[in-house]
## 1
Amino acid sequence: MNPKPVLLTGVKPTGDIHLGNYFGAIKPAIDLFKTGEYQTYIFVADYHTLNFIQDAEEMRRLTRETVMAYLACGLDPEQAVIFKQSEVPAHTELCWIFDTITSVPYLERAHAFKDAEAKGKEVSVGTFNYPMLMAADILLYDADVVPVGQDQKQHVEYARDTAEKFNRVFKSETFKLPKPVISEDVAVVPGTDGRKMSKSYGNVIALFGSDEDMRKSVMGIVTDSSGDKPENVYAMHKLVKAEGELMSLYENNRGNYKALKEALIADLTAYFASIRAKYVELKENPSIVDDTLMKGREKAKAVAEAKMRIVREAIGVA
C-alpha cells in the first residue's frame, strides 16, 4: 500500500486571527486535510515571524492562539502533525546548507525583498534569506503539495529550484519536487473599509474576540449610501449564508443598512458558534495545546532527522 502524499503548510503567528485568515487560509487547509487524501503537516512558522515580532510574550501568545485556532476549526491532532518550526532544529540546519549553494542575485528576486527595497526599508538578513528557510521547511518533509495563494506561488518555486540544484550539485536524488496547490476559489474577504481584510489596514473582524468586539466591527463596516444594497456587508454575508437565502433579506431591507448589519452579526455568530466555543474550551484547558505540540514536535523531529541523515551523507559531513 502506497503511503499518502504529503501536504505541508506553515502559518506565521503575526497577529490575532480574523475572518480573512479563516476563509483565506485556515478553512482551505483544513478542507484539504479532511479529504483524507494526505498526510498533513502544519507548522507554526515562529522563526519566520521573528522578522515581524520581536517580543517574547507576544510571540508565545500568538503561537498558542494560532494552534488553538486550527484545532478549534477542525484540525485533528491525531491525524495531522502540528508543530512549532523552532522546535525542530533541522529547519535551520538545512537552511544553512541551502545557503551555501544559493547566490545573492537569486535571492534578490524574492517578492518580499523587492517590496521592502521598493519602500526604502532597511532589509534584515532574515527577510532577505527567508526563501531558503521556507525551502527547508518544505523539503524536509518530502512535501508533495503545498497549498498557497496565487501571490505565494514563488515560495514553492524557490523550494523546487533549490531541490533541483542540491540534487545536481551533490549528484543525488535527495529531494523530491513539491507542487503548489492554488485554490482559485479561495475567498478574498473584504475588510470593514472595503479593502482586503488585513491587520496592516486595521480593518479586520476578529474571529475569537468578544461578541461586543464583533458587533462593533460589523456596525463599523463602510457602506455606500448611493445604492440599495451595501456591497461590503453583502460580500461578507455571502461567505456564511447562501446567496439564495440572502436575496429576500436584502430585497426586504433595501436601504436599511442597520437591519442588514444586525442580520450579518446574527449569521456570523451562528456560523462560528461551535468554533468559538471550542476555542474557549482550549483556552481553559492549556494542557491540550501543550500535548498537541509535544506530540507534533516528536513526530516532526523523527521525520526531519531521518531526512537530515540522508542530506549529511550526500554533502559528506556524516
## 2
Amino acid sequence: MDLNAAARRGGSWLAGDDTAERVATLASTTMAGTTFGPGLLPRSGLDQALATGIVAATNHGLVMTSQSACAALARRFARDDGTPSGRARAYLAQAAVSAGMAAAGAAAERVLAPRPGEPVRRAMLRTAGQRGFRAGLAGAAVAAVAAADAAAGGRRPGLRLLAAAGGLLAGAGLAGWQIYHYHAGGQTDPARLGPPADPLADELADRAADLLADRAAGGKAAPQRVPLPPVARSLWLGAAVSTGLHVIGIAEGAFSRVIAAGVRRAVPGAGPVAGMAGHAAALGVTVAGMRAAVEYLDHRAETGGSAIDAAYTNPPDTDTVSGGPASAVGWPTLSREGVRFVNLALTRQEIADVTGVPLAQVKAPVRAFAGLASGPTVDVRVDLVMEDLARLGAFDRSVLCVASPTGSGYVNYVAIETLEYLTRGDCATVALQYSLRPSLLSLDRVGMAREQNRALLHALEWRLQGLPEGRRPRLVGFGESLGAHTMQDAFLHEGVSGLHRVGLDRTLFIGTPADSKWARQWRVNPEKTDPDGEVAEVASYAEWLALPADDRARRRYVLLSHHEDPVTRFEPALIVQRPGWLGPAARRPPGISHLASWYPLTTFVLTLVDVKNAMNVTPGRFAARGHDYRADLARMVSEAFRLPVAADEMLAIEHALRRREAEWARRRLVAEQLHRAKEAVQRQTRSWGLSGDTGTARSALSDQG
C-alpha cells in the first residue's frame, strides 16, 4: 500500500487542500469547544447544538475570508509554479503574510487596551486585532507546515498527514479538553444549582406538571434515560461537533470554489482574489440564512400572537374590563394576550374570599387594554384606551397603574392580581400593546412603544390634573422585561425628573433589559439623574429588606433585577466587548459561574440562547431565578407601591396567586386539546363526505372536559 497516497487522500478528505480551509477548521473547531461553557441558565441539547453550529459556522466563514485574503496577497510575492520548491515558496510567503497579520493584530490589541466606560467602537477594533492575531498565528503555523511538506515533495507520510489534518486534530483536542473542563468543574459550581424550592406551590405544580406530561406522552409514562458519565459525554459531544464542523467545512469549501471559478471565468484578471470572493459569498449565504430564519420566526410569532385562546371564545360580561359591554374597544381586536388580561381580572367575591374583607367593601377592579388591531395609529389607540378608562370607571379608583407589557402584549398576572388584592379592587390597570411577537423578536418596536407610552402618560397627566385633588387616583407604573425598557425610555435624558413630571408616584420595573438607556444613564451617573436617591435596584426581596428602613422609605422607583437574568445581561456589545459581570471570578455577582469566560461572539450567542429560555416556567411553581420573578413579586408590589399588608393576608394572597395560575394553565390546556379534537373530528367527517351536523360529537367532547 502506498502510504504517501493514503496520507494525501486522507488529509485532503479531513481538511481540504486549501490552507485557508485548514486554518478555518482549526479555529472553528477550537471555538466550538468554548460554546460548552456555562451560561447564565442551563441549556438543552438542542440549544447546545444550535449555539455550537452558529458560533462554529460564523468563525469558519470569518477565518476563511481573512486567510483567503492573506493567500491572495502572498501570491503577489511568490507564485506556485507547480514544482516542490515553488509550492514551498508560495506557502512560506503565505506564512509571512499571516505572521504580519498576527503582528498587526497584537499591536492593535496592545494599543487599544480596555478602559472603563470605553465606547463599543474601541472594543470592536481591539477584538478585531485579537482575532487577527490568533488567526494570523494559526495561519502562519499551518502554512509553515505546508511549506515543509511541499519541500519534501509530499513523500513523508507523517508530515503530509500533519500538514493536511493537524489543524483539525489540534482543534478537536482543544475542544475536547474545554468540554471536559467545563463538565468536571460544573459539578462543584454553586452557580449551576437550580432555583430555590417554592414550598407553597409543590402540590399545585405537581398536578400541573403531571397533566402536561400525560398530554405530551399521550397518557403513557415517559421512559427514563440513563445519563452518560461526564467524561464519556464530553468525548461523544466532541466527536459529534468535530464531525459536524467538518461537514460544514466541506460544504463551505465546495460552494466557495464554485463561486471562485465563476469569478475567474467572468473576470479573467480577478484570479488572485477569486478565492476570497468565494469565501466571502459563502459567509454572506450563512448570514442571509440566519436572517431568513429570524423573519420566519417573526411571522410565526405574529400569527400566534393575534390568535385568541380556545379557553376564551366569548367576550367578558363585566362592565369594568375592555371588550365587555361598557367598553369602546372591540373584543376581537385585543389579541391573545389582551384577551387573557381582561378575562383574568379578579372578581369581587375572589378578592373577598382571599383577603377576608366583607364583600360590601370590595370593588370590581378595572382593566383597560388596546391591542395593535384596536387602532391603526398610536394616537388612535391612546384616545381609545383613554375613553375606555372613563367608561369603565378607572378615574373613580384610588390607584391607577400604567402597565407597559412585554413584546407580545403580556402583562404579568401575579403583579396585577396582587395589586387588585391589596387595594380590595379599588384600582385600575391600563396597558397598550405595541407588538404581537415575544420581546426578543420585538426589539424593532421599542421606538414605537416608547412613543406610545409617552403619549399615554401625557394624556393621563392632563386627565388627572382636571380632577379635584382629593379625587385623583394615585398613579403608579409597572413594567417587565421589554415593557420596563419601553416605559423607562419614555423619560430618556430626563432621569427621575421625567417620572415626577407626569405624576408617577411609584414604579416597579422587573427584569430591565441591559439595553435600556434610561437605566444605563442612571447607573453611570446617579447623582445627576437621581439627585435625591429615589431609585433603587435590588436582586431580591431579601436585598430590599437589607436596606435601612429610612433608605427604603425614600426609594419610590424600584428596579428588581436578578444577577443571573439573561435579559438584564444581553446586549449586542457582547460580541466584541467583555461585560463587567464576567470580570475576575472573585468579584462576580452571585449566580454568575466562576467557570464562565468571555469569548467574542460565543458569549453573545450563549446569552441569546439563555434569553430564549429565560421564561421556561412551571405554572404554579414560583421561583426567583433567571427572568422568573414571581416568588418575590407579590411582596415587592406591596413594598414598591406602598400598599402595606399583614403577614397572614400576604400568605393567603401568595397561595391564591399560585392556585389561580396553575388552574388557569390547566383550563387553557384542556380547552386547547378539546379544540384540536373537535377540528380532528370535523376533518374526519368531511373526509367521509359527511356534511351534516357534528354537534353530537362536539357535545360528547365537551362533556368529557
